[in-house]
Amino acid sequence: MHFTGIDVSKNKFDVCWLRDATTNKRKTKVFKNKQAGHEALAEWLLNNIKAAPENIVIILEPTGVYHESLMYLLHDKGFKVYLVNTGNAKKYAEAINLTHKTDKSDACMLASYGYAQQSNLQLWLPEAVEVRELKALLRRLDALESDYQRELNRLDSSEFSLSSERVLASLKEMIRALKSEIEKLKKDIDNHINGHPKLKNNRKLLESIPGIGSVLSRELTYLFAAKTFKNAKQVGAYSGLIPKFHESGKLKGRTTLSKTGPSRLRAKLYMAAVVAGRYNKSVMQQKETLLKRGKTMMQVIGANMRKLMQICFGVVKNQTEYQPQVT
Q1: How far apart are CA 188 and CA 223, in angstroms?
Q2: Is the domain of 232 the same as that of 284?
Q3: Are residues 302 and 227 in the same domain?
Q4: pLDDT per position as a tens digit, 132-141
Q5: Could you tell me if residue 324 is inside a domain?
Q6: Number of folded domains in the chain?
Q7: pTM higher than 0.70, yes or no?
Q8: SS3 breakdown of the chain: % helix, strand, coil, rounded to 5?
Q9: In a shared domain, residues 270 and 310
């Protein structure tokens, strides 16, 4: 197998082919992060490595959306693509004492990391077409909702500062337009989910859980369709809900959430956990137990968020509606 690391940015990506792991011989090149650059990379790899695509391993880190189209093209052409955890790659870079951090050195580090961890890597596979479409729709909805909230904030500050009538009218018109488009997009997302039996069934199962409404069920329907989790602990880790303990010297230890993974999901999950703490029997029982132990309300809500995600994982994995388990 031949290992290649790619460090992706918005306008370009740096490539490093690890020619010989024992002598650390490398070959590097830079390409534009466009369709033509993606095609040129595939050709460059085949011409230089002189191996079949299935024998060429590509290692990347997630970089927002800038790596996605490149990954899809490389996968379609038969290359083995691996999307590695950024935290693990960073620890490896520290372990090998990578002192000069550049795009080129990051690409070479990824190639070396892939070679060293090849037995632990998990092959990346693209989502199904309907899942990819759902992802794009949810991203657009999230962007519009952020714009809507910003305009509401601007309107509030403008009214407070007695801004001009023209500015107020402009803000109100923009808010109406955003609100209308948000509602249309929500209907399109719901119709998309309902048009695919597996997505529709998973959403139905998720909404059988008290505390999970239409907003969070959209996000979780995509999450469980796009990601493969072996157990509930992995779901908690991905969502940034694993507790971390902090203690130093005389500072009394305290527990906080790791907060890795998508913050957008945690924000929606927070509100769901608050509601579940009032209406979901399993979550209510945990809440009462933790409060009796002296936990703060924020610690309780964090635990309830994790509990709720575990329940969601369970109903989707077992394909059964929610049944409260109260002792």
Answers
A1: 18
A2: yes
A3: yes
A4: 999 999 999 9
A5: no
A6: 3
A7: yes
A8: 60, 15, 25
A9: yes
Per residue in 213-243, pLDDT (tens digit) is 999 999 999 999 988 888 888 888 888 887 7
For 172, phi and psi rounded to 5 degrees? -65, -40
| 97 token code pair | 């004492």
Token pair of 68 as six digits: 């996605």
Could you tell me if 101 and 43 lie in one domain? yes
Does residue 291 share a domain with residue 311? yes
Other residues' Cβ atoms within 10 Å of the Cβ of residue 121: 15
Whole-angstrom Cα distance, residue 92 to residue 98?
9
- Its domain, for residue 296, covers 217-318
Closest C-alpha among 124, 121, 114, 174 to residue 149: 174
Task: Give the β-pairing of 56-60 and 2-8.
Answer: parallel
The CATH code of the domain that includes 105 is 3.30.420.10
Residue 212 counted as domain residue:
no
Q: How confident is the model at residue 150 (pLDDT cuts 50, 70, 90)?
A: very high
- Token pair, residue 327, equals 């002792």
Q: What is the pLDDT of residue 299?
A: 87
CA 309 – CA 227 distance, rounded (Å): 14
